[in-house]
Structure formats: structure tokens, C-alpha cells
Amino acid sequence: MSAKNLVDRIYEIATRRGFFIPTAEIYGGLAGAFDYGPIGTLMKRKIEEIWREIFVLDEDNVWEIDGNVILPERVLMASGHVENFVEPVAQCKKCNAVYRVDKLVEELLNIPGEGKTPKELEKIIKENNIRCPACGGELSDVRVFNVMFPLLIGPTGRLKGYLRPETAQNIFINFNRVWLAVRARLPFAIAQIGKSFRNEISPRQFLYRLREFTQMEIEQFGTPEIFAKHPRFHEVVDLEINFVPAKGENAGRTIKIKLGEAVEKGIFPNEYFAYYIGKTYLFYKRLGIPDEDIRFREIPDYERPFYSKMNVDVEIRLSIGWKEVEGTAYRADYDLSRHSRFSGVKLAIQHNGKMVIPEVIEASFGIERTMLAILEKCFRPENYDRPWAWFAFPPYLAPISVAVYPLLEKEKAMVEKAKELYRKLRKKKVNVVFDAKGSIGKRYARADEIGIPFCITIDHETLEDDTVTIRDRDSKEQVRVPIKELEDILNKLISGSVSFEDIKKRYPLVGKK
Ligand code: GAP
Description:
- This protein is of the alpha+beta class.
- The protein is about 35% helix and about 25% strand.
- The chain folds into 3 domains: about 240 residues, 2-Layer Sandwich (BirA Bifunctional Protein, domain 2), CATH 3.30.930.10; about 60 residues, Herpes Virus-1 (2-Layer Sandwich); about 130 residues, 3-Layer(aba) Sandwich (Rossmann fold).
- The mean pLDDT is about 95.
- The site of glycyl-adenosine-5'-phosphate has 18 residues, from strand 11, strand 16, strand 19 and helix 13.
């Protein structure tokens, strides 16, 4: 299936079945903006929970905050975003279309555009006679455009602010308050899940480039001595990742490297940085992304964000190419030092008898890009055996875990029994739906389309012996189990602690596929 076809198919199901709704769709929509529908909301929550398990709950000293999205201008001046968070643009003199010039140059000439100055880009445009791709018109001189959304706060309009372009800034400006509140000692980390905003020049590719998106960020505070050794490094030391170095004989090529070796050879600056790379790898594996579709790319100097000493991005192979979904950055003391200077409040912590401004390692994830990757990897087109498209989400990630069906809508006793079971499961916090409409085959197809892994059917036998069938989405096989054991079986199936294959060994298979 071509890339466009795949994205179109996913887009169609995702919008029809309530994963996403184009923002203000009834008014013609808004570029680069989607609302989460009911199914998407549940799935987003699942991704957040898995992230929280791995990066917050599995660690000893990580604290989560939830910051304001509106920030006064001083914060973003201190962070460097007012000056540096800019993209080079040129406008067509004929049709007024605006282009991000570094990307235009990359697309049309297949040469790197990022990191070049406006003057350098202008020269390339002139020398190669690049014109407006839409109408052939002449392009203007290159200017820089700040991609933050500016705001005027309050009725006088005199207080300038911005919607935050990254969640990280709330963590830095609240650093002193947090460590005092939780009596933290180095090393410790502050995490945050929340919305960020960027006035992207050309939002596109469905969920890939949005103007409002959700980040899950973690800022690890320490010192160079602390970062050198991680007490749990042994857990990731032997993990082998696909790595694309920016320098050396393998620059630009994918190599396999163990995290221990990457630290030994000085490729990664310290064990903490490598530990976060390892946890990030395990996170994407847990989301069901295959090994061969995950790579870690070291960002070359000319592409690296202004605040970072070293950046390694996670890229996932999507139908539209290898695309960034996460970035690990060694921000060192850039942010806390700048905020200390601009605010006059020293953002420092007691360490070994002195007040020190800590260094920072950051892991920054985008939920929507991660969701796009999951949707693509789990999409299964229709075939002879199953003439409808479906999503093979791992059960613990599926937005809805269970569907409960009475076999026949007109059989009152079956409907009542099914409703009773549905309500019972809901009380136990299982994500469950009830559906009585249409043939059972159509209901299974509807469930597959949003990736529901298990369907429970209440039939004639249920009324006689209190057993139900469980249909497994992936194999389409069914087993019959006693209702009294159902909750336990479902919990195990959904968490992944047992497989349907295991269940098949213990309970009789029923019906045909
Ligand atoms: N605090 C560091 C930071 O914000 P970034 O590489 O600019 O770093 C981190 O962004 C992640 O946020 C990206 O890897 C991506 O997943 C997500 N992201 C950034 N811009 C985005 C956009 N316009 N649309 C969707 N996701 C975006």
C-alpha cells in the first residue's frame, strides 16, 4: 500500500470511529489541529499511563507537575525562544504562499537546509532559480519567523506572553519550589505531561506536524559527577539499539551498538544519558513498535537545538519516511542558569554542602506522533479471511479492551444478562462497550475496526449454565468460560500476563473461526 493510501485509510477510520476529529470541522476545519474523540481520548490515556509507569513510577525520585500553558514573555526571553525559536521563510510575490525555506531547499534540491542562515538560503534560491512550487511566482527575500503563538494578557494588552512551545519551561521556572516542596536531593527529576503550541508554517501529514500537541517531558537534574554513573545502568547496559551517528566513519549510517559500548567509547556523554536512551527504547518496544522500525539518530551540530550540548532523536519508520517522535537532550545548566540570570532568583540546590545550579538531561516525547506510529504499525488491511480493515493493538494499549454482546437483541433475557455483565466490568474499571445492534458478525467487524481485543457473547448456553464465549480479535477463535472466572481471565489477557493461546489450553474452543 502506498504511503498516501495508508495514511488516507487510517485517517478515514480514525475520524469516522472517534479517534480524532478535525478541529472546528463543521466550520471548515483548522490546519494542524485535531480534537481527540472518545476512542482517541482513551488511547491517549493508555499511552500516558505506560509512559508514567516507565518514567515516573519505576523510578525512585521523579515528581510530576502540571504547569500553565500561558507564560509571560520574560520566561521565553530567558529560555532563548524569543530570539532563537525561528524558522526561515519566504513568500511568493504572486500567490502569497509562505514556505519554510530550509525544508523547501531540502525537498527540491536534496541538500541539507537546516542550520543555514537566511543569507545562505537566499543565495541557494537565486543560484538554483527556485520559484513558488504552487504558481511558479518569484520568492521574496528570506526572513525569520518566530513559531511561538504570541498573546496579549489582560484587558490593557500591555503584558506580553506566549503559549508555551515546550512543557519543559514550567519545570525549570518551578525548580526551586519543587525541590523545596518534596525535600529533594540530587539526583532527582521533574516530569510533566501537557499541551505545547507552535505556529508551524506548514502543518501537515495528519498528526505529524500540529500547531497544538501533547508532550511528555522529563527533566533529570544532576551534576556531571552524578551523571557519569547511573545506579541502574546494569539494567540497560546490554541493550542493543539501531544508532545513526552524526560524526566519524559511520556518520549517517545505521549501526548496531550496545548502550554500554556507546558510553565506553564516549559516543554518549554519560551513563544517565544512555540510561534514558535505554528506557526510551523499552517504552517504544512496549508500545509494539518493532525493533527494525526504531532508530536513534544523533543530531548533527547544525540541526541541534540552541539549548542542547547533545541531542539524540528517536525516529520511527513510517510510511512517510523515518520520522522523529522523541528527543533526548543534554541541556546541561543552560536553562537554570539563564532563568537565574533573568529572574534574579538563583535556581540552585544544596549539594555536598554547597549551592549548585544542576545540569539537566531531558527526554521529550510527542504523544500524537507516537499515536500516529502506533496506528500505522497496528493497521491491518482487509483480506480474504477478514474482509474489513482492523487494528492489532496490543491488548494493554487498545482504547477499548472488551465488548459485551447479547447474541440476539430481541431475546430480553440475553440483553439483560449482557447489560449486567457490562456494568459489572465497568465498575471494575475495564474499558468496555455494550453493543446489541446488528448481526454478531457485523458487531465483531465493528470491534476489530477499533482494535477491541476481546468480545464476550451472551448466548442460549449462558442462560442455562452461566458460561460465555470470549472471541480473540487476532485469531478470531472463541473459547467458552464460566462467568465467575471471566473477570480474572480478562484481567490477565488485557495486561498481557497470559495469552489467548494459554487460555485455549484451559477452556474448550467453540464454533468456527
Ligand atoms: N523540550 C524539548 C522539545 O520540545 P522538540 O524536539 O522540539 O524538543 C519534542 O519536541 C517532541 O515533541 C518531538 O519529538 C515530537 O514528538 C513533539 N513535537 C514537536 N513539534 C511537534 C509538532 N509540531 N506536532 C506534533 N508533535 C510535535
